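User: Show me a protein chain along with its predicted structure.
Assistant: Here is one chain, sequence first, then structure tokens.
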Amino acid sequence: QVQLIESGGGLVQAGGSLRLSCAASGHTFSSYAFGWFRQAPGKEREFVAAIDWSGSNTFYADSVKGRFTISRDNAKNTVYLQMNSLRYEDTAGYYCAAVRDSTWYSQVSGYDYWGQGTQVTVSS
């Protein structure tokens, strides 16, 4: 099984930056694709970004394209989400997820493993 632990969330002013980390256990880390999702109160969990097993292909929701960057460091078994130019509407709980042998990167149902989430709050 894969265990995911997010960190790096917090309170930040609009226009600021945060870097989220997702530390993963498991000896098959390099063969997994990873995604970041977020969920605000009363809303569905929505796709934010994903990175495939090789790290060469990334995918972003239109709402974060150009502002967020997903990356991975296989040696550290860690996936990152660099968030710049943060807006109030980015406020949500952020969750990392992992899957092996799937290309449904933007769908919640496409992932097998989930972290507990880390809260990001953007103030005006």
